[in-house]
Write a structure and sequence with these properties.
- The structure holds 3 protein chains of 3 kinds.
- Chain A has one domain: MetI-like (MetI-like fold, Orthogonal Bundle), CATH 1.10.3720.
- Chain A contains 13 helices and 2 strands; from the N terminus they run ααααββααααααααα.
- In chain A, helix 3 packs across helix 13.
- Chain A is mostly helical.
- By secondary structure, chain B is mainly alpha-helical.
- Chain C has 10 helices and 10 strands.
- In chain C, the strands form 2 sheets. Chain C has a 6-stranded mixed beta sheet, sandwiched between helices. A 4-stranded antiparallel beta sheet of chain C has the order 2-1-4-5, with helices on one face.
- Classes of the chains: A mainly alpha, B mainly alpha, C alpha/beta.
- Chains in contact: A-B, A-C, B-C.
- Chains A and B meet through helix 3, helix 5, helix 6, helix 7 and helix 8 of A and helix 2, helix 3, helix 4, helix 5 and helix 6 of B.
Chain lengths: 317, 326, 263
């Protein structure tokens, strides 16, 4: 009753204010619509993990291959049985080789990535945002098969001339991978350096330090967690790269004997094999087990990144 | 070792400097001079690294374009069908397939990514739902594309019985593209000044209206640039496609009925793209002019991707100018 | 019933009053219990040193603080006898009736015309002729019409800062609010643009709108306002008619502030 007492010259507000307005309904619909998009993505990811794992696990559950002979076995020939009657599905050579190319390519890329990001953040910021970043975006856009082709046409013959042999191998693949992950690592570590507050630099310059002393003594240490994240992201990309590596590594599923001999990574065996083995056979199941290892590794990389983020997070605030 | 030496030297002069504040010791001046020289040297090395990267990038692009130049100037190369056993084949169907797949992928992935990005930035910027969703998107973005491709094969090709087809390929590429697009759109929306949203809310508009009519238009230049750049990555993707869209390219004819494998728009036909073509002929090709064809295809791919890059920037800048009316 | 309502009740019934309004950010108190009342056709200035809670209070009146995660508004905000700080009250409706102008001019990245017509359309005005009329009327109210009538479809960002701010005022007036909240509307403007905004404020009040303006500029407060409230460290210290506040402050802290001892 008391509401009806106030009567302004405009329409009485009490009638408009109760109930759900049509605008609220629009809002509700928007929320549901966009929420469904998010749900869809989450469901897709969960389905993917479930499908790949369920096929991969059947190697061990259905085909009865012991975990040991998969992860520790060194001979890969799924169509033949070993002395113990178990198919020869030792994935260790591929696992070792995948890690080797990943680490090696990161080692090769890191000095360049770090140097470039120091340059564009500390020495020439304008050049960095106007010229260098667009250029690295071009580098990101070059398809991996094209990198593979350049590797075949340039790196492999060059290796062959330098050390002899076929030219295919871990080092050739690592060089190509290093170029491929360079833009990822560079742009992430550029962001890491740029996030260091200027007050830190001013403190160092105020003490009479040179730019280089400031970078080494102040900027790099406080950006270290984010630079590690950048490196892990680069490793994650290198670990999962398939076609460029497959074109250059030589595709010999054997324990790598050195940097210059042909080898096989998890991805290259998958790429080559999946088309040739019929679904449901042991030879096909073990390929899914390899895919599961790849999946697990990329989850581990994410976990590491998140752990670094949690530990080093909020440090600049 | 070296760092210890450096601090040792640095500390000593400071102590001395306190004693004789007026005249810095010879030691101290030497340290300063050394620091200056180090600084110069570091700058030179950094510059060399950046120059090396730029020259390297230019060399890669020049190499690709130069090795493919022979085929690029061959007028039939872009329209003819590929040959299996003899020289002189073209990449007509592959070129069409690449664009067709790209368009389909964008049509599917753009609305989903836009919706997800709006939800994450506007409706639930914090909270458990968002954390799960962010982790899921992060996971998807770091999955190897070959794994996404194999999942596509398992689901679309085998379980749904769509076979090696454009549809299977486009849906797989959608999974590959969603995390990239969500991040691009999210960043673009977050870069719109807060006061734009406040203004809309203070006028009694819903968040939905504020987003659709104010934030998205204001973020459009960045969204367009990001989407076109991501289109370049979809365009060149091969690993996710070899077991989903297939490795064969039937000859196309616009006269064929839509159900025929020859009809270009039939989404249930296998469709090899440019990138897959390069991989295919290099790994198992028997054509005599293999090197020339793959170099030519790579050059075409490269030209398209450079074009995407340039268009992305021009379009973004043009939109920006229209919004701010300079 | 409605038509017969006596209009002389106006001065007694404040259009808006707050009763023990408090604001907490993530459990930290930013504004202590504040009770003030605001009448139609008057300008009330909220003054005080930065961080004193005057903007926080202003943003609680149209519940804008609710858009900040972790922010809780307590107490009653009574608008036309309705406590709007309660469950089930439609904030969209409230914000249409209680307009707000921000510190930085923030026109939408749309044309001048669309900046005003956009919210009108959203609130249900669809006819082109109605829109045209309302756009012109509100631009005239904000003293901007003569300057922009020939370029209504140009981007709002082609205008000067002062013009942009007047466009924001016009955008708010177009919804026919009876309260307009202004959060330091002149702090980003030059003196000439400031003068134009102050004239618009006086004009709004003369047409019966209740204006509440946050300002750090005491000269501005004494020029435009009828009443002034002084805030300090999250507390409303003193409120009264503007001449009394500046001429004969009762509270020692206000006196010190006016004499420049702090702030």
């Amino acid at each position: 009753m008391s509401r009806e007492k106030i009567v302004s010259s405009q329409s009485s507000p009490s009638s408009e204010v109760v109930g759900v307005s049509p605008k609220r309904r629009i809002e509700r619909r928007g929320q549901i619509l966009t929420g469904l998009c998010v749900m869809l993505v989450v469901v897709l990811v969960l389905t993917l993990i479930f499908m790949v794992c369920s096929r991969g696990i059947s190697t061990f559950a259905k085909d009865g291959i012991p975990l040991g002979s998969f992860f520790a076995g060194t001979t890969w020939n799924p169509h033949q049985n070993g002395a113990d009657g178990v198919p020869l599905v030792g994935a260790l050579p591929m696992i070792v080789c995948s890690f080797s190319v990943t680490l090696l390519s990161c080692l090769l890329a890191l000095p360049f990535a770090l140097g470039a990001s120091i340059f564009v953040v500390e020495v020439a910021p304008g050049f960095g945002s106007r010229v260098f970043r667009p250029l690295t975006e071009v580098l990101v856009g070059i398809p991996s098969v094209v990198f593979g082709l350049v590797g075949l046409g340039v790196v492999v013959p060059w290796m062959r001339g330098l050390v002899g042999g076929t030219g295919y191998g871990i080092l050739s693949a690592s060089i190509v991978l290093a170029v491929m992950i360079l833009p990822t690592v560079t742009s992430l570590s550029t962001d890491a350096l740029a996030a260091v507050p200027n007050a830190y630099r001013d403190g160092s310059y105020g003490l009479g330090c040179t730019r280089w002393q400031t970078v080494v003594g102040v900027v790099l240490p406080s950006a270290l967690p984010d630079i590690m994240t950048a490196v892990i992201m680069g490793m994650s990309r290198a670990f999962g790269e398939a076609l460029a590596v497959q074109m250059i590594i030589g595709n010999a599923p054997q324990m790598p004997a050195g940097l210059f001999t042909p080898a096989s990574t998890l991805t290259s065996v998958l790429t080559m094999g999946m088309g040739n083995e019929a679904m449901g056979t042991v030879a096909n199941d073990v390929l899914w087990a390899l895919a599961m290892v790849l999946l697990a590794m990329s989850l581990v990389f994410i976990l590491i990144v998140n752990l670094i983020g949690r530990k080093g997070g909020a440090k600049h605030d | 070792m070296t760092s210890k030496d450096a601090t040792g030297e640095k500390n000593a002069p400071v102590a001395e400097a306190e004693d004789q504040a007026k005249a810095p010791s010879a030691d101290y001046t030497a340290t300063v001079r050394r620091a200056r020289v180090q600084d110069k040297a570091a700058t030179v090395i950094l510059t060399v690294i950046v120059v090396l990267i730029i020259v390297g990038l230019a060399a890669i692009i020049a190499y690709i374009l130069a090795s493919g130049a022979g085929k690029l100037v061959d007028p039939g190369f872009l329209t003819k069908k590929p040959e299996q056993f003899k020289a002189g084949g073209g990449i007509g169907p592959e070129l069409f397939n690449s664009f067709y797949l790209l368009v389909l992928t964008l049509v599917i992935s753009l609305p989903i990514s836009l919706g997800a990005a709006i939800f994450l930035t506007q409706y639930a910027p914090q909270g458990p739902v968002t954390n799960v969703a962010k982790t899921a998107i992060e996971t998807l973005s770091s999955l190897p594309s070959i794994v996404v491709g194999l999942f596509g094969m398992l689901t679309f090709v085998l379980t749904f019985h769509w076979g090696f087809s454009i549809l299977s390929g486009a849906l797989t590429l959608t999974m590959f593209n969603i995390p990239i697009l969500v991040r691009v759109i999210q960043q673009a929306l977050e870069a719109v000044p807060r006061d734009q949203r406040d203004a809309a809310l203070a006028l009694g508009l819903t968040r939905w209206e504020a987003t659709v009519h104010v934030l998205v238009p204001a973020a459009m230049p960045a969204i367009v640039t990001g989407v076109i750049l991501s289109a370049g990555r979809v365009f060149g993707e091969a690993a996710a496609l070899i077991y989903t869209a297939g490795q064969s390219a039937p000859e196309l004819s616009w006269a064929a009925p839509i159900t025929s494998l020859a009809n270009p728009l039939n989404v249930f036909r296998p469709a090899e793209t440019l990138a897959v073509h390069i991989w295919k002929i290099n790994s198992e090709g028997v054509v005599p002019d293999l090197t020339a064809v793959s170099a030519g295809t790579a050059a075409v791919l490269m030209v398209c991707i450079l074009a995407f890059n340039i268009i992305a920037r021009i379009a973004g800048r043009a939109l920006e100018r229209r919004l701010t009316a300079e | 019933m409605t038509e017969a309502a006596p209009i002389q009740a106006r001065p007694i019934d404040p259009v808006l009053h707050t009763h023990d309004v408090t604001v907490d950010y993530s459990g930290k108190r930013a504004l202590n219990e504040t009770s003030l009342s605001f009448e139609s056709g008057t300008v009330t200035a909220l003054i005080g040193p930065s961080g004193c809670g005057k903007s926080t209070f202003l943003r609680s009146i149209n519940l804008m603080n609710r858009e900040i995660p972790g922010c809780v508004i307590g107490g009653k905000v009574v608008y036309h006898d309705i406590n709007v700080n309660a469950r089930g009250i439609d904030t969209l409706w409230l914000r249409k009736r209680v307009g707000m102008v921000f510190q930085q001019p923030n026109p939408f990245r749309k044309s001048i015309y669309e900046n005003i017509a956009f919210a009108l359309k959203s609130h249900g005005m669809t006819k082109r002729a109605d829109l045209d009329e309302r756009v012109e009327k509100s631009l005239r109210s904000a003293a901007l019409w003569d300057e922009v009538k020939d370029k209504l479809h140009d981007s709002a960002y082609a205008l000067s800062g002062g013009q942009q701010q007047r466009l924001c005022i016009a955008r708010t007036l177009a919804l026919d609010p009876d309260v307009v909240l202004m959060d330091e509307p002149c702090s980003a403007l030059d003196p000439i643009a400031t003068f134009a905004i102050e004239e618009t404020i006086t004009d709004m009040a003369s047409r019966g709108i209740c204006v509440i303006i946050v300002t750090h500029n005491m000269q501005q407060a004494s020029r435009v306002s009828n009443r002034t409230a002084f805030f300090l460290m999250g507390t409303m210290v003193e409120c009264g008619d503007t001449p009394q506040i500046f001429g004969a402050p009762k509270d020692q802290r206000l006196n010190d502030y006016l004499n420049g001892r702090f702030g």
